[in-house]
Each structure stands twice: as structure tokens, then as C-alpha cells.
UniProtKB/TrEMBL annotation, chain A:
The keyword Magnesium does not apply. It comes from the Eukaryota. GO terms for cellular component: endomembrane system; membrane coat. This is AP complex subunit beta. The lineage of its organism: Eukaryota, Fungi, Fungi incertae sedis, Zoopagomycota, Kickxellomycotina. Residues 626-640 have a biased composition (Polar residues). Adaptins are components of the adaptor complexes which link clathrin to receptors in coated vesicles. Clathrin-associated protein complexes are believed to interact with the cytoplasmic tails of membrane proteins, leading to their selection and concentration. Signal peptide: none annotated. It comes from Coemansia aciculifera. Residues 607-649 are annotated as: Disordered.
TrEMBL record, chain B:
This is AP-3 complex subunit mu-2. It comes from the Eukaryota.
Length: 649, 331
């Protein structure tokens, strides 16, 4: 009974609370409404500012649409911009009311101040309302031929938005043709914007060949690129990268003209230039030129590594890809990739990967010393990778194997738990690669047997014991203790290893091993739950009882050499990623078509064409997308249709 | 409260997903800079000073510099700041060493001057990135920097010194030793001596030693300089020396601490190496900062700075500073 009354009271209270809040809100909006209609200019201005502030924070101010609209005829540039922002935001919800604003837009598009003309055109383009579009065509046409380059460049961008909304209108009115003509404009900003727009329109209509860069336009672009802003340079570089040069001479001259771009401060310009040079490698055949290009690419990439960690990460992921095409490119610069103590962990992982790739026979010694330092670090994962890197080097370069094993044993003696496990696993691989070379090390290894407690490491250690059983004196004891606890071992890898090693021990030292192998096989066959282990034990038993020689042939066979190479990309994937070097695709190491969605596609179906979004790189300013370690996900690229100033918190 | 300026800036910088203009001088022409004076006048008199100034767009060939700039004293200052990024081992050996630098300028010049900056060792720089105002072809051809400077403070170039161009000079020599006492306490000793710094004193030396998270009972002694022990996220000791003359030796820092054996370690928490007797502790590194005024470690200096086009007398100044970039001492 009591509960029910309390609950109804709570419900009533909630309703009252809602009403009060609604009234308050209505009060605020009401207050703003009166302010917006006030006769004093300053109060109206202040009101508009507050409306926008509310909108930014997420409060709903759409009810004030008409009042805000009334304020549009103002000389104040700042207020005009704010009101236009408001309109862009709410245009979708109130398309009929937006029509009222169109008149002002058209008038503004003929204003004496070029900034206002440009503002009007841009806003009309962002509104994305069909009715506005019809009125937009005339002003747009005029602005495309405007005397002020600022207006022209904004008008050019607007064409892309029009195309997105209605390709038919864009074609009919010849806007696309106008943009193509803008490629020969006198102002480089206009040219670079035209390139961006044409590339995007190409994206939107993948089937029709709206625009292909041809050899006549190439010289204009090359001339303009030096004068453009960095973002314009990126657009032009991308377009040139997609272009197929007609002759080898043309390819060579394009590359040489663009080499200075490698020295730009903006990391994205550098990476896009590298993309272009790598793509043009198949058109240029002169070996001296190719080696010159490779040499010139190295210093800018290294400079990228002295920036913020986010940029370092992007640079490293791209360098990873570049190295798969040119493995020897960075061999002299190995010290640059040494990890600093305070590097973020994602940067350290990448640096470690690159270090292993670029290490050459001469560098193994300093690198091994460096890896030994890393193995003493705090992060467990990093330590594991460092130890595995030591193993890789040992396997790759025979000359370094001795030193590597020495380092590994030193690490073992630190007696740190995780380090011991990793070292044992890596030692097993090294021993497998160089059979019977490191017998003297095995006794030291055995001293640390108590520290080995992870299943992988235990299996590795038991394998080693089996392989080197003739060198270890007390191996019988060591194995027998393990076999005692055979059934306690949960991991089947360990059990299999025990069976194998027991058999090997017996085959190498029949007297000492006899009792042991009998016990092992007995436990395995009779009491073990795992069918694989039982089967293998049976096989061995029968082999041993039937014919010890063939058992020898089976158990003591020489194993195929083991490779511990770093993961490499397949050739076709590498081609695709090089074509997208410097964009998010190369950081994620997945081609763009796998994760780019156009908003008009069915949900969940990625676009089947390449993404060429010029501004998506993380250059100065450090992009947030570069922070995560290669996670997948449906990244929604905001297409040209999205209003540019919709900032929601 | 400045959101109107932020909006205007954003709308100029980015247009529908593609970055358009990020040059600060161009933006300054397009978006009015909020200033206290303007705001006060606007509030008091209701006249929008800001709104009446019609910003105009600069589409000349030098968008970073507008016409008609006037200054009473014409001066131009060049600062060459070099940073040493190095990793030094405990015994003082250099594991890795890298020098990169910036040329920053402050220009207060009238009109549209053209400057020519010549350096003495331009070939020592293997990767240079310039401000857009620099004429690229002049650098390609003659290795001189020709440019029309923007007004005010700007970064003219940033460069990287080729690894084989300069010997590895360290203005500060550091050694560290780590040991354990009978009572299980760890002792870190760091010694700092002046190195090669062109006979200038090394100043503003700061050595930051982060200690393992489980450290406690930290006792510090220093011979020369001051120290502070802080425990914001993890314990660390900071040692500051105001300056170390070119021949001074003997500055020492001694840190003594105990380490708690951690009982519960979550899987993701950094694993502490179990402090069994005789084991080394995990790798640590100290971060070092210093500044040497008037010294250029790569010995790249300005040969000359000439001015063309304008005809007034120019007051020039050049300064060199060598700083520690990411300088670490491992022990």
C-alpha cells in the first residue's frame, strides 16, 4: 500500500518537474524571441549570439527560426555568419521556411564585399534543400566567373555540393564544365580547389568518367603547386599520383619537379609525394633516377619522426609499408628508430617492428644491445616483442646468433617472471634453427627451470631438454619430476612435449631413459584424458616395441628450418596500400574500400571504390584517428553533403 | 565566450571536409581578432567597431604579408635554436644522437622587403622545411634563403643536421650508477660534468628521474643545485642546476630508496621485476633538459643577411641557442 502511494507521488513529482523545466525553457526561448525582435541593434546581436550558443550546446532553438531570419538583413558580418550557421543547421527540419531566406542570399551574392558574396554562395551550397537549389544556379554561375579569386574558389567548392545533391542540375547548368575550366585559372587556390572538387565528383559518379587528368593540364598543375597552400598541394599531388604518364620522359620530369615537395613542413605533403614517387616507379626505368628518388625520400621521413607521437605513429605505419617495397632504404638510419623511454607504447611497438625490418648484418650488434635494454622495460607486451625480436635477428643472421643467445641468457638471469617465459620460448626457436650449436648454454637454462611456469614456456623447455638430452647429466631427474605431474598439466602442448622428449631421451640414452619412457607412455596412454596425447603415446609405444630404429627415424628426425619473419603484406595488398599512402588506409593497413561508407549506401555495405578524401590526413594538429592501434570499424566519412559547421558536443 | 571567433575561424579553415586555409596571417585578415579594447568599446557605446572594419581577402602573390606595413625602427632578428635528441647509456656512451633545429625570425620591417640569408654550412642540413614565403628555386640552385618575410614572429625554416656532418658533441656529460645496499635499498648516483659547449656555461639544467611506482622512503642528496621529490602519479626526483660553467665538474645527485614488493599485480599493471637478491632493477631513464646560450652545436651560423628592394637601414640581430631535445640518460 505504502509503496503504491509513494510511487504515484514520485510520478506526479516527475510530471510537475517536466512542466516546470518546459516552462523555463519556453521562458528562455520566449525571452530570446523578444530580444531578437527588439529595436536595439546591440540587443538583437547579443540575442543572436546566445541563440547560437544554445544551439551549440544542444538546446533546441528551432522555434526561433522566423525571428532569427528577420535579423538576416544586417551589415554586421559576424552576425550574418552566425545566422547563416543557424540556417545550415536547421534547414533540413524547416525547408519551407528556408525559402524565405533565399532572397537575402541572392542579394548577398551580389554584394560589393567579396567575403559576403563567398559566404552567401557557400551557405546556399550547404543548405541542401531542393528548392533552394533552383535559385542557387544563377548566383553560382556568376560567382564562378567572379573577379575576386576568393569568391571563385568558394564557388568551385559549392559545385561539389550541388553535384552531390543533384548531378543533373550540375551538368545542365554546365557547372562541371566551369570547374574544368577553372583548372586554368590564374589563381593557384582556385586551381587546387578545382582539383579537389573534380576528384570528389569523380568519386560520386564512379561509372562515368567525369574527369581524367590529361597531359595538357599537367604542366599547369605543376606550375601551380608551388604557390598553393599545403592542402591544395595535397589535392594536386593526389590527382597527379592517379595520373598515368604517357611517356617515360613525362614521368621523369614530373618526379623531378615534385622532389622539392619532400621538403615541405607538412607531413601529409611529404607522404603524398612519397606515394606519387612510389607509384611512378613503374613508369621510370632509369636506375640512377630511381636510386636518387629513394635517397631523397629518406631524410624527410626521418624528420617526421621528431614530431609529436601521433604524427610519429602515422609516419611509422607508412614507413612499414614503404619498407616492404624498398627493404634496404633505411638501413643506415637504424639509430633514429631507437625507442625513447617516454614514447607512447603504440609508437614503441611500431618502432620495434621497423627496427627488426631494417636491421642488416652490420647493425645486429648495436641493435641487440638496444633490445636488451628494452627487455628490461616495464611493459610486459613490449618486453615480449623485444625478446622475440632478438630471436628473429638470431635466426636471420647466423653471425649474430652467438651474441643473441648470450643476451638471452643474460636476460634469463634477471629471473623476472615474464622475461623468463619469453626467453625460453625464443631460445627453443633459436636452437631449432641451429641444431646442436648451443649445447653449453643448456645447463644454465636448466638452472632456471623453477622459474618456468607458463605452458608455452614449459613445452619449449621440455623440447629443449629432449633435444639436448645427451648433454645434460641430470636430465633424468628433471624429466621425471615433470612426468610425475603429467596429469596435472592442463595444457596438451606440455603433455605432448613430455611424451616426445621422453621418447627422445630413451632413444639417445637407452639405459637411463628406459624406466622414464615406460612411465611416461604408461601415464599417457592409460590415464590421460586427451585423445591426441593418448594416440601419440600409443604410436610411440608400438614403434618402440616393434622397431627402435624406425622410432629413431621418426622421433629424432632433422626438422625443417624455422622462420620467424615479421608479417608481410601480400603483393596486391601492398600495391593498393602504396596507392593510398599517407591516408588512413595506410595507417590501418586496409584498403579504403573496406571501411569507407557513403551515406547513401545501404547500411553496412561499404563503397566499392577508393576513397580520396584529401583532407583526411593527420598533419599538423595531430589527428585523433591516429591514436588507436589499428582498430577496425565503420568510419563514416562525412561527405560533402554534411553541413560543415555542425558542431555537436 | 569566444565562440563566434572560433566559428569564423573554422568556417574559413575547413570547407565541407577539406582543409582550405590554415595560414595564420591570411586568417587574421579574414577573421577579426577579438581584443579586450574592442569588446569594451562595443559594450560601452553599442557601436560595433569590429563589424565596421571590413576584412578583405589578400590574394596577392605574398598572402602572408599585406601591403603598407610601417614600422618606426626597422629591425630583423634571427634565432637559431638547435635541439639535441640523444640517448646516453649509464657509462656515458652515446647510444643515439640527433640534432635538429629551427630558424625563427622576428621581423619589424616597413614595406615589402626582400631578404637574403646565407648560412655558412648549408650542406650540413640534410632535410630542410621552409615557410611558404621562401623562394624554393633559390635554395635549390644556390643554397641561400631568399624570402619576403611576414610581419612579426614566424618560423623561417626547420632543419635536420645530417648525421655524418657534425661530430657528436655533448654539452653535458652524464654518468649514472645503480647499486644496492645491504639493507635492500637502491641507490642511484648521477654525475653531471660540463662537456663541449664552446666555452659557454650550460644553463637551466634539469634532470628528472622517475622512480618505480613501488618506491618509497626516498632520500636525496645533491652536491650543487637543488632537488625536489614529487609524487604526482609516480614518484620522481627533480634536480635543477642553474648553470654549470665550462670547466666545472663534480655536480652529483644521490637518490636512495626502497622498493615495496608488490603482492597483487593485475594483469595489465606494469610488472615489477621481483626484487630477488642480486637482480638488476628494471630499466629506468632520466630526462635531461638544458640550454646553452650563444652556442650552436652543429656550428651552422649565419654568414650574412642582405636586404634588397627597400633602401632603409636595417638593424639585424642573430642569436644561437642549443637546447636539449629529448635527451635521456639510461641506467
Amino acid at each position: 500500500m505504502m509503496n503504491a502511494t509513494i510511487q504515484t507521488k514520485i510520478a506526479q513529482f516527475q510530471i510537475v518537474k517536466q512542466k516546470i523545466l518546459a516552462a523555463l525553457r519556453k521562458g528562455e526561448n520566449y525571452e530570446l524571441k523578444t530580444e531578437l525582435n527588439s529595436e536595439y541593434k546591440e540587443r538583437r546581436k547579443e540575442a543572436v549570439r546566445r541563440v547560437i550558443a544554445n544551439m551549440t550546446v544542444g538546446k533546441d532553438v528551432s522555434g526561433l527560426f522566423t525571428d532569427v531570419l528577420k535579423n538576416m538583413h544586417t551589415d554586421d558580418l559576424e552576425i550574418k555568419k552566425l545566422i547563416y550557421l543557424y540556417l545550415i543547421n536547421y534547414a533540413k527540419t524547416q525547408p519551407d521556411l528556408v525559402i524565405l531566406a533565399v532572397n537575402t542570399f541572392v542579394k548577398d551574392a551580389e554584394d560589393t564585399n567579396p567575403l559576403i558574396r563567398a559566404l552567401a554562395i557557400r551557405t546556399m551550397g550547404c543548405l541542401h534543400v531542393q528548392e533552394v537549389l533552383d535559385h542557387l544556379s544563377d548566383p553560382l554561375r556568376k560567382c564562378l566567373k567572379d573577379p575576386s579569386p576568393y569568391v571563385r574558389k568558394t564557388a568551385v567548392m559549392c559545385v561539389a555540393k550541388v553535384y552531390d545533391l543533384s548531378p543533373a542540375i550540375a551538368e545542365e547548368n554546365g557547372f562541371v564544365e566551369d570547374v574544368r575550366r577553372a583548372l586554368s585559372d590564374s589563381n593557384p587556390m582556385v586551381i587546387s580547389n578545382a582539383v579537389t572538387v573534380l576528384t570528389e565528383i569523380n568519386e560520386m559518379a564512379p561509372g562515368q568518367n567525369i574527369w581524367r587528368l590529361d597531359s595538357k593540364t599537367v604542366p599547369t598543375l605543376l606550375a601551380a603547386i608551388n604557390e598553393c597552400v599545403e592542402w591544395g598541394q595535397i589535392a594536386i599531388l593526389e590527382a597527379l599520383a592517379d595520373y598515368t604518364p604517357k611517356t617515360e620522359k613525362e614521368a621523369e620530369s614530373i618526379c623531378e619537379r615534385l622532389l622539392p615537395r619532400l621538403q615541405h613542413a607538412n607531413g601529409s605533403v611529404v607522404l603524398t609525394t612519397v606515394r606519387l614517387l612510389l607509384k611512378y616507379e613503374k613508369y621510370v626505368h632509369r636506375a640512377d633516377l630511381l636510386s636518387q628518388f629513394s635517397k631523397k625520400m629518406v631524410p624527410p621521413l626521418i624528420t617526421l619522426l621528431s614530431s609529436e607521437p601521433e604524427i610519429q605513429y602515422v609516419a611509422l605505419r607508412n614507413i612499414n609499408i614503404i619498407l616492404q617495397r624498398h627493404p634496404k632504404m633505411l638501413s643506415k638510419e637504424i639509430r633514429v628508430f631507437f625507442c625513447k623511454y617516454n614514447d607512447p607504447i603504440y609508437v614503441k611497438y611500431e618502432k620495434l617492428d621497423v627496427l627488426v625490418r631494417i636491421c642488416s648484418e652490420r647493425n645486429t650488434e648495436p641493435l641487440l644491445n638496444e633490445l636488451k635494454e628494452y627487455a628490461r622495460e616495464v611493459d610486459v607486451d613490449f618486453v615480449r616483442r623485444a625478446i622475440q625480436a632478438i630471436g628473429r635477428l638470431a635466426i636471420r643472421y647466423e653471425s649474430s646468433a652467438d651474441k643473441a643467445v648470450k643476451v638471452l641468457i643474460e636476460l634469463l638471469q634477471l629471473k623476472a617472471n615474464s622475461v623468463v617465459q619469453d626467453v625460453v620460448v625464443v631460445l627453443r626457436d633459436v636452437f631449432r634453427r641451429y641444431p646442436q650449436s648451443f649445447a653449453d648454454v643448456v645447463p644454465t637454462l636448466c638452472e632456471h627451470i623453477d622459474y618456468v611456469n607458463e605452458p608455452d614456456a614449459k613445452a619449449a623447455l621440455i623440447w629443449i631438454l629432449g633435444e639436448y638430452s645427451e648433454h645434460i647429466s641430470n636430465i633424468g631427474n628433471l624429466l621425471s619430476t615433470s612426468i610425475e605431474s603429467f596429469l596435472d598439466e592442463e595444457d596438451e602442448g606440455v603433455q605432448l612435449a613430455l611424451v616426445n622428449s621422453a621418447v627422445k631421451f630413451f632413444l639417445k640414452r637407452p639405459q637411463q631413459g628406459q624406466a622414464l619412457v615406460l612411465k611416461a607412455l604408461q601415464t599417457a596412454t592409460e590415464k590421460c584424458a586427451n585423445p591426441d596425447v593418448r594416440d601419440r603415446a600409443y604410436i610411440y609405444w608400438r614403434l618402440l616395441s616393434a622397431d627402435p630404429n624406425s622410432a629413431r627415424a621418426v622421433a629424432l628426425v632433422e626438422m625443417p628450418p624455422v622462420e620467424l619473419e615479421s608479417a608481410s603484406l601480400s603483393a596486391s595488398l601492398l600495391e593498393e596500400l602504396i596507392a593510398e599512402l599517407g591516408s588512413v588506409a595506410s595507417v590501418l593497413q586496409k584498403p579504403a574500400k573496406l571501411f569507407v561508407y557513403k551515406k547513401t549506401d545501404k547500411a553496412g555495405v561499404p563503397r566499392d571504390s577508393e576513397m580520396a578524401n584529401a583532407g583526411f590526413d593527420s598533419a599538423e594538429g595531430g589527428a585523433t584517428s591516429a591514436g588507436d592501434n589499428g582498430t577496425t570499424g565503420g568510419i563514416d566519412t562525412s561527405n560533402e553533403g554534411e553541413p560543415e559547421l555542425l558542431i555537436s558536443f | 565566450e569566444n565562440f563566434t571567433t572560433v566559428y569564423q575561424l573554422l568556417s574559413e579553415m575547413v570547407d565541407s571536409g577539406s582543409a582550405v586555409t590554415t595560414d595564420t596571417s591570411v586568417l587574421r585578415g579574414l577573421v577579426p581578432v577579438p581584443s579586450l579594447v574592442d569588446r569594451v568599446i562595443e559594450n560601452v557605446s553599442g557601436i560595433g567597431i569590429r563589424s565596421e572594419k571590413r576584412p578583405d581577402v589578400n590574394t596577392s602573390s605574398t598572402p602572408w604579408r599585406s601591403q603598407g606595413i610601417r614600422h618606426a625602427n626597422n629591425e630583423f632578428f634571427v634565432d637559431i635554436v638547435e635541439r639535441i635528441d640523444a640517448i646516453v647509456g649509464a657509462d656515458g656512451s652515446v647510444v643515439s644522437y640527433d640534432v635538429s633545429g629551427d630558424i625563427s625570425c622576428k621581423s619589424r620591417l616597413t614595406g615589402m622587403p626582400e631578404l637574403l640569408l646565407v648560412l655558412n654550412r648549408a650542406e650540413a642540413m640534410d632535410d630542410v622545411a621552409f615557410h611558404p614565403c621562401v623562394r624554393a628555386n633559390k635554395w635549390q640552385a644556390e643554397r641561400v634563403i631568399g624570402f619576403v618575410p611576414p610581419d612579426g614572429q614566424f618560423k623561417l625554416a626547420s632543419f635536420h643536421v645530417a648525421t655524418d656532418a657534425a661530430p657528436r658533441l655533448l654539452p653535458l656529460h652524464l654518468h649514472a650508477t645503480v647499486s644496492r645496499q645491504q639493507d635492500q635499498s637502491h641507490i642511484i648516483e648521477i654525475a653531471a660534468d660540463a662537456g663541449q659547449s664552446g666555452k659557454r656555461p650550460v644553463e637551466k639544467i634539469q634532470v628528472r628521474v622517475p622512480l618505480p611506482a613501488q618506491a618509497y622512503n626516498i632520500r636525496v642528496q645533491c652536491k650543487a643545485g637543488t632537488h625536489t621529490v614529487s609524487n604526482v602519479r609516480s614518484p620522481q626526483v627533480e634536480w635543477s642546476l642553474k648553470s654549470l660553467g665550462p670547466t666545472e665538474r663534480g655536480a652529483r645527485l644521490t637518490i636512495q630508496y626502497l622498493v615495496r614488493a608488490s603482492s597483487a599485480t593485475a594483469a595489465s599493471a606494469p610488472q615489477v621485476l621481483s626484487p630477488s637478491p642480486g637482480s638488476n632493477q628494471s630499466a629506468l631513464a632520466a630526462f635531461v633538459d638544458f640550454e646553452v646560450a650563444g652556442y650552436s652545436v652543429s656550428s651552422i651560423k649565419v654568414d650574412s643577411l642582405k636586404m634588397l628592394v627597400e633602401s632603409y637601414k636595417l638593424f639585424k640581430g642573430v642569436r644561437y641557442v642549443t637546447k636539449a631535445g629529448s635527451f635521456q640518460l639510461r641506467f
